[in-house]
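Deliverable D4.2, example record:
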Amino acid sequence: MILIFTFYILFQRGRAEDGDIILPPVDKNRQLILTPGTPSDTSTEPPSPESQTSKSNFLRTLKDGEFIGNIMDAYYGNVQVKAIVQGGKIIDVQFLDYPSDRKKSIEINRRATPLLKTEAIQAQNAQVDIVSGATLTSQAFQESLADALSQAKN
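Output generated by the structure prediction step:
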């Protein structure tokens, strides 16, 4: 097995030539980072103000306002959030309801709710990581936030 792996590595090194495709870098939101001189940047002139405006309108996919998501069942209680959008971006996520009638639920959600909120604002969407130990709350949060953001779509 080791011999096969070693052969594979040597084979891959031998294949790297000038004709290989080099992918441009990607930022944390999985968007290409185009800098002058990258293969995908074929423009020879600086971007015009009109193209900058259309690009910013393209990136701005949410309308401003406060959007309340559906109440979602998290087994030990309900989760409901409100997304606040300003300038086309999520600037705040507020919990309107979350499991808090048991001591254990209070303990779990005291830790989980700020993490979920912070991550959603950073990600600018509802696709956040599940908080360990708060799986059901995390899933209900994702669903309620996704519903709120669907209302905010232009």
